[in-house]
Every structure is written in structure tokens, then in C-alpha cells.
Amino acid sequence: MGLFSVGSGAPPVGLDIGTDHVRAAVLKPTSSGPVVVGYASAEMPMGAVVDGEIVDPQAVSSAIRELWRKPGIKGRDVVIGVSNQKVVVRLIDLPFMERDELQGAIQYQAQDYIPIPVEDAILDFQIIGDYMTPADEHMMEVLLVAAQRDMIESAVQAVEGAGLRLASVDVTSFAIVRATLGTSESVLPDEDESPGAAAAVIHIGSGLTNIAVVEKGVPRFTRVSSLSGNQFTQAVANVLNLTFDEAEHLKIRAGLPDIAADAHVAPQPGDEDGQRLQAAQDALEREVNKFIAEVRRSLDYYLTQTSQVRTIRRIHMTGSGAQLSHMTTYLEKGLQAEVVLSDPLRHVQVASSAEAAVTADRMGSAPAIGLAMGGVG
Ligand SMILES: Nc1ncnc2c1ncn2[C@@H]1O[C@H](COP(=O)(O)OP(=O)(O)OP(=O)(O)O)[C@@H](O)[C@H]1O
Ligand SMILES: [Mg+2]
After folding, report:
1. How many domains does the chain have?
2. Which of 55, 132, 193, 322 lies 20 to 30 angstroms, CA to CA, from 45?
3. Looking at the structure, do residues 285 and 225 belong to the same domain, yes or no?
4. Within 13 Å of residue 173, how many CA atoms lie on the same side as its CB?
């Protein structure tokens, strides 16, 4: 599913426009599945993307142009992902109708479910399934996506400003789910698929965290939160009165304390570096506890909306921000679920020419890989 797409030949390049980085993934379909043949990332100038929205299309265009100068990145058509307050994803129940009929009716059906006036929105939907009610009414479940038109227009501007064409727009969390859990419906259902269980996918970037709940391969709930890598860094900067860049380095060096080994940093008197590390870990621990509360609220909300699923058994973590050391242990304890670091390259093959670039950014690659996977699928 994509918010819109225009036909073309070669599959579009997956282009992930983020707060700190812009990334491109080029996938080639083969009989044994998609192969990553090109991958690159470049820094995004500060302030060009804020809260998942492009605020400076020109600056974004030049960051994208830089990517297209790197080896292996070619092709004029791109697919981007959107993820911000101006995109809403809703699972709705409607009286059963055929796909074509819904295509014509969605405009009128959607307004009740979305906070954006339909005339200002680009809509897309996917029929998930149909069922009979106890009163014998034929109903269907529809995943509805609505994105504010002006937000999409900034993306078009940024992409075209780089000399490229926006072939389609996807929802970033759908792309992340695709990369981490795969697309094949033929694979044997694993534990996440047993009745009454769902999986969550959490991707931590610098400005945003994407949370999705997935049942039988279908994302049924998504939310974005601004509690993410930059907030962790800012918390360290605040307690120690450091610049953002200094705090960034210290954050990565300190990580969270190893609660499993009960190994909090215990600095000796006079050990200034040890004291700084300890203060950083304490600040990160407080932020991660806020983060856990936020994720719990999202998951609890989902569970109250659904009648069948009672547990979220496994949480798949991705994103550069998920590399904070001992993060998974904290989440596992706080959310009472199995938490695993998910490999975004698990469902693709990687050509040797792209290997170095993509493995250097492995955890950060999920959105770009997943966007490109959507384009080849
Ligand atoms: N080893 C690490 N430990 C902890 N955090 C890390 C590590 N490496 C990178 N990060 C964090 O990951 C974040 C950068 O993530 P990324 O580049 O994926 O964001 P982005 O895609 O540009 O932004 P967004 O998707 O939020 O708009 C930063 O906050 C950075 O501190
Ligand atoms: Mg990102």
C-alpha cells in the first residue's frame, strides 16, 4: 500500500528522509528475493527536518543530491516514507463492499475517522479482511491512511529539487515492519502469530520513535513519539551542562547501566570522568523510564481497541537509537515482553558492492530497506 504511486519501470529507490540522516537503498528483484545493490547515507543539515516534517525543502534537496553522488545510488524514481503528526493510520470497520466500490466511497467514509478535512488529505486504504457480525451483517476491516496534502507537497518539492521523481509515498512504520518482519505470507507463522498474540516493532531515530503493532504480518496500529535519540542526548546535556555534541559522545560511551549484572558505574572520589559517566547513565535511565511509559501507553491503547489480541508477546527494536547499550534489557523489564534487536537485513540479500555501506548503518537502515522492499514487491 502506498499513499499514491505512478507506474514506472525499475523499482523506485527507497529514500528515508530523517532528522539527522537521509538514506537511500537500491534493491534489485531476483528470483531468490530482493538484493540490496546500493546503499548510502548522508547527514541532514540541522533544522531541515523537524518532527518528521520537511521544513526546508531546499536543504533536503541538497542532502539528497549528495546521496546520488555516492556509488551504487542510481535511478530517478524514489519512494519515501512519511511519519509525523500529519499522517494518521486508522483501523476501521465498514459494511462490506468490493474494493472498487470502496475506492469510490472512501472519500465519504473517511471523514468520520480522521482529524484532517478530507479535502486537504491524500487517502489510501487496504482491506484487511471481512467477517459476519452476530446479527449477520457482512462487515470488513479496513486500514485507512490519511496524509495532509501540504506535507506531501513539501516532500515532492524536496525530491524534485534533487532532480528525482516521487514515484510513491508510503507510511514509514509500514516500511520498518516490512524490513524487520518480512513480507512473505508463505513463511510459517512463528510465535508472534499464535492466536491472541501480536508483535510490536519499535524504531528509534534521532527525532522520532515509530511504534507499530503487527498481527499476522499486518500493521494494525502505528504511533510516532518524539521521545527518541535526541531527547536522550538532550537529557545528558542538561544534567552535565554540555553542548549537544559533547553529550552525544558521552551518551554513546555511557549507555545504560547493566542492570542484569547490577553494574552501575561506581566512581572513586576524584574520578571526574567516572562521575560524568555515572551522571549520564542516571539521566539516561530516567529518560528510558519515560520512554517505557510512553510505549506502554501506546500498547495498552492498542490492546483496549482490539477484542482478540490480549498480549504483545515480542517487541522488535530497530533504529540507530536502539543501540544504546542495555536498552533491550530495560525494555524487557519495563514492558514484560520479550525484546529483541531486529536485523533489518534479515529479509534481503546484500550484494558485495553494497555490503560495507549498509552494514555500517545496519540498525538505521530499516526504513530505507523497507521502502525499497515495498517498491519491488
Ligand atoms: N551506539 C549508539 N548508542 C546510542 N544511540 C545511538 C548510537 N548510535 C546512534 N545513536 C543515536 O541514534 C540517533 C540517530 O538516529 P538516525 O540517524 O536513525 O535518525 P534519523 O533517521 O535521522 O531521524 P528520525 O528518523 O528520528 O527523523 C541519534 O540520536 C544518535 O545519538
Ligand atoms: Mg529515521
Report:
1. 2
2. 322
3. yes
4. 30
What is the span of the domain harbouring residue 15?
1-184+347-377
State the DSSP code for 53: E
Which residue in 156, 151, 205, 152 sits closest to 176, CA to CA?
Answer: 205
Is pTM beyond 0.70 here?
yes
∠ CA 172-348-156 to the nearest 5 degrees? 30
Q: Which residues of 266-294 are buried (b: 16+ CB within 10 A; e: fewer)?
A: eeeeeeeeeebbbbbbbbbbebbeebbeb
Residues with CB under 6 A from ligand 1: 18-21, 52, 205-208, 228-230, 233, 248, 252, 319-321, 323-324, 364
Cell of 252: 554513546
Which residue has a Cα nearest atom 29 of ligand 1? 229
Mutate to test the pocket of ligand 1, among 15, 20, 43, 362 (most ligand atoms within 8 A of CB): 20
Nearest protein CA to atom 18 of ligand 1, as residue: 205
Mean pLDDT by 10 residues, the chain (377 residues): 64 97 97 95 97 97 98 96 94 94 92 93 93 95 95 96 96 96 59 71 98 90 96 98 98 92 75 93 97 96 82 94 96 95 96 97 98 89
**Residues recorded for the chain:** 377
Please, which residues have CB less than 5 A from ligand 2, an ion?
18, 205
Q: Are residues 20 and 120 in the same domain?
A: yes
Element (H, E) at 131: strand 121-132
